[in-house]
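Supplementary Note 3. Input sequence used for the single-chain structure prediction.
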Amino acid sequence: MKNPAMHAPLIIDVAGTELTPADRRRLANPLVGGVIHFARNWHDRAQLTALNAAIKALRPDILICVDHEGGRVQRFCSDGFTRLPSMRALGELWTSNDDGEGRGVLNATRAATACGYVLACELRACGVDFISTPVLAPDHGKSSVIRDRSFHRDQCIASLL
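The predicted structure, written as C-alpha cells, is reproduced below.
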C-alpha cells in the first residue's frame, strides 16, 4: 500500500505546540490517518510550521487538519493570519445587498471566494492540508454549534457559496 494514511480511520490531536514522546508513539500507529490542531497547538506561525514539519517527518502520509473558518472559529488569529468574517456574514451579503440586479449574489460569491483563497493560502503555507468547516450545514436556529458557521439557512444559497 503506497499511501496507508489515506485508509486509516482515526484523526487525533496532539498535546501542545511541540510533539511529545507520547504524541510520536500515537502518530506512528497505522490506524492514525490524520492530526487535528486546536488553539492549544498554536503559538505563532513559525512554531506551527515547525510542528507540522515534525509531524510530516514522522509520517509524510498523514493529513494535517484544523477547524479554522473565520468568525468565532479561527484557531490561529495572530502573526500574519487574516482575521476572517464568519461564514454567515458572507451569506448575508447574498440577501442584504440584493438590488434586483444580482449585486448581492455577486458580492457574496466574490467575498466567499476571496476568503476561501486567503484561508487556504495562509494555512497551506504552514503545512495544513485540510480545513474542516460546517458551511454547508443549514442553520435552522436549533444548533448552538452551527449558528454563524453556516453560510446561510437556505441550503441552495449555502451550496452555491
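Residues 1-66 form one domain. The chain has a mean pLDDT of 86.
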